[in-house]
Predict the structure of Molybdopterin molybdenumtransferase.
Amino acid sequence: MPEFLKLLTPQNALNLWFENIPFSFPKYEEIKTTDGLGRVTAEDIKALHPMPSFSKSTVDGYAVMAKDTYGASDSLPCYIKLTGEILMGRQPDRMLVAGTAMLIHTGGMLPEGADAVVMLEHTQSSRSDEIEVCRAVAPLENIIQVGEDVRQGEVVIPAGTRIRPAEIGGLMAFGIQTIKAAWKPKVGLISTGDEVVPPESTPTIAQVRDINTYSLEALVKEHGGEAIRYGIVPDRPAELQKVLHSALSECDVVMITAGSSASARDMTSKVIQEAGKPGVIVHGINIKPGKPAILAVCDGKPVIGLPGNPVSALVIAWLFLPALLERMQCLQTTIIKKQIAARLTINFASLAGREDYIPVKLTMEDGIYQAEPIFFKSNLIFNLVKADGLMVIPADANGLNAGDMVQVLFF
Ligand SMILES: Nc1nc2c(c(=O)[nH]1)N[C@H]1C(S)=C(S)[C@@H](COP(=O)(O)OP(=O)(O)OC[C@H]3O[C@@H](n4cnc5c(N)ncnc54)[C@H](O)[C@@H]3O)O[C@H]1N2
Ligand code: MOO
């Protein structure tokens, strides 16, 4: 019986693999903040000054002392002397004194002495030097105070944060043009198989174009790694040995596709085992698709042996590689895979003890997502192209019934 028939759950497989990887603090590089999307910060970033650095209005209206408006209503307005206008981007040229108001615009700097802003809609101006206030304001109403967003010196983006558009905006608010980011792990991609030819060539009748190198390259890029292609290796162990050796010396992670299963030409596990210590950690995971997957460590470097079937290769890589890249870059917050709850449209059988990831089409009915399973074969990439997401059938389920709610993950 091939060794890989001793199947682990995906979570146990991941844990066991990670226990054998010597994670260390990541190398880092200085990058332009504008290039930072998707990168991981390698140091704490602190507020250089309070944000905002001046107190401002959140509405168009009149800066006032709140107490001057107390009791004001539509039936009993109060009258306040208008002493000028605060121009945008300019510091007010005078203090606000009791019993006076100044015209202010959204984002304008509050004059000293003012503690609230009356909205334009709650005033009338019958005379050019006076306003009629029809509604009272409380202190701090319609203003943003100095440091209300963040205090000076506060850690605003901790080390190990994935940079999203919001972080880029926050960094620019401080004028931080460069950041230290964890280096992008280099992921070597090796395709194997005598029948596999490059996409630019025309396959003969029993050949196939290389899908996996390219779908995996895109996945690596999407999850913050740098992909390095090592081409297609024929089904000869010596050839794979040679290419794997180069990839291990040049990359931080290596992914090999195909040759993971049970036949005599499935050499991947053996070649990985001989490429470095401790070698193969997991061969076989209780999952569909992707059961024959291999997780290994060769002299400190993680290696993944993916099934050749393009759907299996992509699903397994999508389940394991992002988690690895996150750990390698010391990401502090696990990225939760985007998912929604949906109602299953039909009865769906599955094997108890095995976690299934089934491609589904999503539609919306009465405000609830409906998940229609695609009866897929893991060799057929367009089964995945046609899917909106992957429905998870947990290991403890012995199939699901039409109407059951399922989680659908977006890959
Ligand atoms: N007797 C058994 N046979 C198989 C088992 C099993 O348990 N017992 N498992 C099946 C499962 S599940 C999978 S998944 C596949 C895994 O196969 P391998 O990893 O050994 O890969 P190959 O056999 O070389 O290829 C499978 C399939 O994928 C095509 N392929 C390979 N590389 C590429 C590529 N880069 N781009 C596009 N397509 C590729 C290849 O031509 C084959 O059609 O094994 C089952 N068999
Ligand atoms: O894992 Mo295989 O992926 O079931 O075809």
